[in-house]
Amino acid sequence: MEFHLGFLASGSGSNFRTLVQNIHGGNLEAYAEVLISNKSAAGALSLAHELFVPSYCLNGKNLEGFPDVDEAIIGVLRRHDVNLVLLCGYTGKLGDKVVDAFPNRILNIHPALLPKYGGKGMYGHHVHDAVIASSDMESGATVHLVDKEYDHGRILAQVKVPRYEADTSQTLGERVLRFEHVLYSQVLRDIQKGIVQLDIR
Description:
The protein is an alpha/beta fold. The chain has 2 domains: 1-100, 3-Layer(aba) Sandwich (Rossmann fold), CATH 3.40.50.170; 104-195, Rossmann fold. Helix content is 35%, strand content 21%. It is built from 6 helices and 7 strands. It starts with a strand and ends in an 8-residue tail after the last helix.
């Protein structure tokens, strides 16, 4: 499968940056077609400009002429011939129309070992705060397919990351993020090799 990637990000876009750098460096066979953010101040938009990836801010204030946000996202992804969508710290909930438009073709990376610490409101430091408040001595990262519920789709791959007694939410988050950067690209390579299957029923 030749990947034509569309990225959705709400923050700094560090996973987006790593994926595109791997493409440019020949470590991932794919095309970075477009980045969409729902936040006009997202660092990912500036990053996309630096990496020469077309970018759009789509939200209630900007719909690119489409009737709603979901239609705008679908329209822009199709305009750029995207066949695989990667969420990279996207905090909005994709509408059912988007999920239906790209069945088993939307991936997300979550900074914990799902099904633990997932669901509505569980993103960024909120996830790491919850791990620190628990008795768990490990966390991790999960790549999963996106369905119509938060952090619920089929898990494709996970990596465990140690949590230490002296950890804070910030230090744990930084450690997990380093593993995210490795895991996301590896999952894409494994899909291309047929090791990881997207269409299992």
